[in-house]
């Protein structure tokens, strides 16, 4: 059974810093991996999706990498801003059409002004 | 991007009553939708897979008679929490994958259920 782990569980940094969030998964046979953002009491916002054949995806200040063979992904946030404060969730899709996503427990990020 | 809506966004009900939550894909068809539950400060846990035209499949430990799922059309799935109890209070979120877009999952805004 797929398990997803995110480290750290929480992170607080001053504004402007670059930071890295880590995600690992136990079964490397994945179809894709998605990073989401969740604000308190809200739904999920998709940030980046990486296909299993890809190594990285970029969107603005965000860069996500994928090392499928080692079961790892990182989300890099450049020049962090207070508005980036949220919980960041990593989720893997193992394929098969009828399977949902397996989520990590998330990294709670606080950017101090 | 693709839009998935949920209704209601929040609901308070009394113990023993039933509550229906709707999930709609607004600009694409979804033969499959997923229902997740999220307890406070926890991650999302898949509850069940909703299949258009056939029975839903439930994850281990999820009572199918308590959480009734109906996938009425290619754009609508409903989750009915029957005989709700306070321990059913949670945040329920649905998602729909867009098959032509690398199977990217689009999530609804969630429904906050409080059972008193």
Describe this structure in words.
The complex is a heterodimer of chains A (113) and B (116). By secondary structure, chain A is mostly beta strands. Chain A contains no helices and 11 strands. In chain A, the strands form 2 sheets. In chain A, strands 2, 4, 5, 9, 10 and 11 form a 6-stranded mixed beta sheet that branches. A 5-stranded antiparallel beta sheet of chain A has the order 1-3-8-7-6, with no helix packed on it. The model of chain A has no long low-confidence stretch (mean pLDDT 94). Chain B is an all-beta fold and 116 residues long. Chain B contains no helices and 11 strands. In chain B, strands 2, 4, 5, 6, 9, 10 and 11 form a 7-stranded mixed beta sheet that branches. A 4-stranded antiparallel beta sheet of chain B has the order 1-3-8-7, with no helix packed on it. In chain B, strand 4 and strand 5 (44-51) form a beta hairpin. The chains are: A mainly beta (113), B mainly beta (116). Chains A and B meet through strand 4, strand 5, strand 9 and strand 10 of A and strand 4, strand 5, strand 9 and strand 10 of B.
Provide a compact summary of the structure.
The complex is a heterodimer of chains A (113) and B (116). Chain A has 113 residues and is mostly beta strands. Helices cover 0% and strands 57% of the residues of chain A.
* Sheet/helix structural class of chain B: mainly beta
> What is the overall pLDDT average of chain A?
94
Q: What is the count of β-strands of chain A?
A: 11
How many whole angstroms does the radius of gyration of chain B measure?
Answer: 13 Å
| Contiguous uncertain segments of 5+ residues of chain B | none
User: How many distinct helices of chain A?
Assistant: 0
Fraction in beta strands of chain B: over 45%
Could you estimate the helical fraction of the residues of chain B in percent?
under 10%
């Amino acid at each position: 059974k797929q398990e997803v782990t995110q480290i750290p569980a929480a992170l607080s940094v001053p504004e402007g810093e670059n930071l890295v969030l880590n995600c690992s998964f136990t079964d490397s046979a994945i179809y894709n991996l998605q990073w989401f953002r969740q604000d308190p009491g809200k739904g999920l916002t998709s940030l980046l999706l990486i296909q299993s054949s890809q190594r990285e995806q970029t969107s603005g200040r965000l860069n996500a990498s994928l090392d499928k063979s080692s079961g790892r992904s990182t989300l890099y946030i450049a020049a962090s801003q207070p508005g980036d404060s949220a919980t960041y969730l990593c989720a893997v899709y193992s394929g098969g059409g009828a399977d949902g996503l397996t989520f990590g427990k998330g990294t709670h990020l606080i950017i101090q002004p | 991007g693709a839009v998935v809506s949920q209704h209601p966004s929040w609901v308070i009900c009394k113990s023993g009553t039933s509550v229906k939550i709707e999930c709609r894909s607004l600009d694409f068809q979804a033969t499959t939708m997923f229902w997740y539950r999220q307890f406070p400060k926890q991650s999302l846990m898949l509850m069940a897979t909703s299949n258009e035209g056939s029975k839903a499949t439930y994850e281990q430990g999820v009572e199918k008679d308590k959480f009734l799922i109906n996938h009425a059309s290619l754009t609508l799935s409903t989750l009915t929490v029957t005989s709700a109890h306070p321990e059913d209070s949670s945040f329920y979120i649905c998602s729909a994958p867009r098959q032509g877009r690398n199977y990217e999952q689009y999530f609804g805004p969630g429904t906050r259920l409080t059972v008193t």
